[in-house]
Amino acid sequence: MTTTYAIRPFGARPCTLVVCRGCCCGDARKHPGTDHEGQLARLREAAAASGGRLAVRTSECLGPCGQANVIVVQPSTEGRRRGARASWIGWALDDDCIDDVLAWVRAGGPGLAEPPETLTLQLIPAPSEARRRVR
User: Fold this and answer.
1) Which of these, 87, 102, 127, 90, lies nearest to 40 by C-alpha position?
2) Which residues neighbour 44 within 8 Å (Cβ) at sequence distance 6 or greater?
3) Cα(73)–Cα(109) distance, rounded to whole angstroms?
4) CB 125 within 8 A of CB 94
5) Residue 5 falls inside a structural domain
6) Is residue 115 classed as helix, strand or coil in its secondary structure?
7) Model confidence over 50-72: pLDDT tens digits?
8) Contact 75, 14 (CB under 8 A)
């Protein structure tokens, strides 16, 4: 398995996609109509072609399994300087969602550009935010 990293130890960090591919996310039994491997390959190809403006990594489990597949869009260094935090996307199951994620990242991602309107419908609270709301 090849992992694409464009993060430099002391330089500016690019926008990073953390793609859940563990227990539920990426599981063909849970979502048989989704090309899980094809989605991940598209994201990695976009990172390779981005000139270091995008990084992609995977995680075993990000937590909100009821909203699988989950992708976390972490802002770049500049996005964080502008106050952005990671954005969590649930139900990332089709090419339209992947197109929207990539368009948002190309425009700058969190803190630098607004997500496409259709993608805002798939934004979910981070697990820690969801726990705070329950208390």
Assistant:
1) 102
2) 2, 4, 56
3) 8
4) no
5) no
6) coil
7) 999 999 999 988 888 889 899 99
8) no
Asked if pLDDT for residue 7 goes beyond 90, the answer is no
Q: In what order do the strands lie in the sheet with 87-89?
A: 54-59, 15-20, 71-74, 87-89, 123-124
Tokens 């609270």 -> residue = 125
Enumerate residues 6+ apart whose C-beta is below 8 A from 36.
Answer: 21, 25, 26, 27, 28, 69
63 located within any domain: yes
Find the angle CA(21)-CA(93)-CA(100) to the nearest 5 degrees: 105
Question: What's the CATH code of the domain at 60?
Answer: 3.40.30.10
Count of domains in the chain? Answer: 1
Cα–Cα distance measured from residue 51 to residue 13, given in angstroms and rounded to the nearest whole number? 12
Instruction: Give residue-wise pLDDT tens across range 28-56.
Output: 888 888 889 999 999 999 999 999 999 99
The encoded tokens of residue 79 equal: 């996005």
Residue-wise pLDDT for 83-131, tens only, equals: 999 999 999 999 999 999 999 999 999 999 999 999 999 999 998 754 4
- pLDDT of 69 reads 92
